[in-house]
Specification:
Jelly Rolls, 11-stranded antiparallel β-sheet, 296 residues, globular
Length: 296
């Protein structure tokens, strides 16, 4: 007799089941990635610092193949995601609006890339010890280029549009099974002064590239893609940031009522500022929250 659980689809159990299933899949597969990064940190750090034309690191096979294959399988079509389409004199590509509209599994994967434990390894490799994630995933998420797509050599923006953060590190994970080298799509890293000093990497499946974000780290996909019309260059893009100390605002401490009778009231509601811990996003957030005082 068949097992109804084994034969059921994720959709038949609703969103909560899909979230639990996705989280369980990540829990059993991603610790191996962390273990490898921790074990190889000295070597990876040396490779990063010795990269030319500027520090960078290329890691093959870092993530479980079945996890990335699932992201490819669930990669949103044109009508499944509110894509941002960039078709200018300097680029032809499209990007997701952060994690909006992507599958739950892909969202959880991106959240894990923004976790404290993963970012700690990026800190160790790059030597940048104040890296924090961007909870809005501004500019990050899924990127895609079709035939004739390209991206002119450029240095990325470093200022976050709505948060006191400056961009420090790019992490790219390529999702392209059976990619033919003749199709192009290579990521080019180039010295800003000496154009002949450059490195080039094809967008092969499960290839991860890490490099700093500065005004001098030129990169792009300068040659238009020649892949078949039914193929595209896909990747996950994650950015890591540092807080801007001069823009950090420190909120006021708790302010107690001067009315001593308030201590004896059975029901008392007040407003106070609660300062969220800085470790989560590397920022100091201030919010108002209703709270009842505890009796002493």
């Amino acid at each position: 007799m068949s097992n109804p659980i084994e034969n059921a689809t994720s959709e038949s159990f609703g969103t909560n089941f899909i979230v639990q299933e996705s989280a369980l899949d990540l829990e059993f597969t991603l610790p191996g990635t962390l273990a490898r990064l921790r074990q190889e940190t000295p070597t990876l750090k040396e490779q990063y610092n010795s990269g030319k034309p500027f520090p960078h690191l290329v890691i093959d096979g870092l993530f479980p193949e079945h996890a990335l294959s699932r992201i490819v399988h669930e990669f949103p079509r044109e009508d499944q995601c509110e894509w941002l389409t960039w078709h200018t004199k300097n680029e032809q590509k499209k990007t997701s609006r952060g994690t909006a509209g992507v599958s739950i599994f892909t969202q959880l994967f991106c959240f894990w890339l923004n976790s404290t434990e993963f970012i700690e390894q990026i800190k160790q490799i790059t030597g940048i010890d104040d890296l924090v994630p961007d909870p809005t995933f501004f500019g990050a998420g899924l990127h895609e280029m079709g035939r004739d797509g390209w991206l002119n050599l450029h240095a990325d923006y470093t200022q976050h549009p709505i948060m006191p953060l400056t961009r420090r590190v790019n992490l790219l994970i390529y999702l392209n099974h059976d990619w033919e080298l003749s199709w192009g799509g290579d990521l080019v890293l180039q010295d800003p002064i000496k154009a002949q000093q450059r490195a080039s990497y094809p967008p092969l499946f499960n290839c991860t590239i890490i490099f700093p974000t500065t005004t001098e780290t030129l990169h792009g996909v300068p040659q238009p893609l020649s892949c078949p019309m039914d193929r595209s260059r896909k990747l996950i893009s994650i950015y890591y940031w540092s807080p801007i100390a001069s823009k950090m605002r420190v909120g006021s401490p708790i302010i107690w009522s001067k009315n001593n009778q308030a201590r004896n009231r059975v029901s008392w509601t007040g407003q106070k500022l609660v300062k969220f811990s800085a470790w989560k996003f590397g920022l100091e957030h201030m919010v108002k929250k209703s709270q009842k005082p505890q009796r002493k």
